[in-house]
Amino acid sequence: MKKIKYILATIALGCLSTSCNESSWLKEKPLDFYTAENSYQTTSQFKKSLNYLYDVVRNLHWKLGDQHVIMWCGDIGYGATDPNNKFNNFKTFLTPYTYVAGSFWDPGFSGIANANIILNRLTLTDQVSEEDKKGIRGEALFFRAYFYNLLANLFGGVPIILEEPTDSRRDYVRASREEVYNQARKDLEDAVLCLKDITETKDGVINIQAAQHLLTEVYISLKNYPEAIKAASAVINHPAMRLMNERFGSRKDQEGDPYWDLFQVNNQSRGSGNTETIWALQYEYKNAGSSYSYEMPRWLLPFYTGLQVESAKNDGSKVLGFPAFTEEKGGRGIGCIRPGEHFLNEIWEKDGDKDYRNSPYMIIRDFRIDNKEAKGFGEWVIKDGWLEAGQEVRNFYPFVMKFSRVGGLPDDNYAKNADGSYSITPLGEHVLVYAWGSLSANTSMKDEYMYRLAGTYLLRAEAYLGNNEPNKAAMDLNEIRLRSHATPIDETDVDLDFILDEQLRELYFEDFRLPTLCRLNKAVERSKKYNPYGHNVGEHQNLLPIPYSEIEKNIYQKLEQNPGYEGF
Prior knowledge:
mainly alpha, Serine Threonine Protein Phosphatase 5, Tetratricopeptide repeat, two-stranded antiparallel sheet, 8 strands, globular
């Protein structure tokens, strides 16, 4: 009995001594679940983490929600679903309390946090080769710079966070906008030394030239124009880079031109022979790794299936001008983003559709009524006068076809008749299958550009102008104008507004417009000048508001609000 007591006492003392070191026996040892400690050890694991950063960027640009419509406001377009809707009133829709600003703030800082984890954990593992570490570090630095640059463009100064997050912080302070740009600069300068050349990387993977392209913009924001020119020139003068001036790719034998070829399926990545591509986001049909594609056709094309025209019955009734979504019209448009008159007409006045970028292949301005029950069946909506007042805002306006996959869609995207034949409209167009969430009628279903060489020329022209070399700026602008058969210009034509118009002509809807206008302090000016609802833009709205939720929870330091938003 006494022996049993001694045993129990020994066990009790052991338990007591263990209880004094709670941290050791309470600490979980992950054996069958992932933690930061066991998820960032091998090259494969780091690559998966980088894939997440690619997806943050892709999701930010491709999965458009209501909040994204305003990113196309300013001087290029406006919200078309209701002339008085939220998209057309920045004063009430773009405030610290609406979800808009957070829709860019949150993924921006999420991307930064994940890049910081990669950069920190990379120093702690011995299972990754030095060569792989170098490349992984370069990509992580690029993405951190990408998000900081975007945030600085939209919000001005934001908190700079360079450490792996370990716990919840509530003491952030804003750095200045210049400090944020400088952080992006440092990351990109380092990334250039770590990344591989564009000739050595797979399609879609960040390379030296992508970092130099972004670095050009950052240098411009810092007003370091000589370095901006140097960075852009490194891309432009690279022997593997050139503008696509000749027909190429998947549809080169069809009617079209080199600019049109840039946007046809399978032509965006360098594997197609496209030497203009710097960075293209990748998509593969029904691949779980890229399960969604760009939703721009849905948002940008008019809601043409809502167009009402006079019935053939001559009784005053109306019928649909286009009863079905078709491939030839680019898919299912819902008319959320309505291009403005400045983009649709004013910027093309000098060359009209002689400019390839405004050709009938790229911007289709009229279609024939495709309903036999319509009085004007077979006649042109615009040319023959069938468009009634009020329907030109959402239901029928020029079709921007840059993002629509027209021709060669996967077979299951086409509507079929009972006998298995294709469903064809009376005028011979191919009807598309549509169900909520389906791909064919809503999205581009192809790779899409993030950076291409024409954009680098535009940035270098901006840098040359800032460096008081308008003659060289004109030469760069003429490189892209001549490719599209536009009339050459000279240095007397060049100012910042001309460059912004040239960006509209060349890159329309390829990247968010608002960050560019905010970067240049032009959002208010050009909105008031070119947007029919520009009067609803406040003088303070060259920057987005800091989300109030971020200010509210940051209780140990004051997170300053941008001027003009404090009263909300």
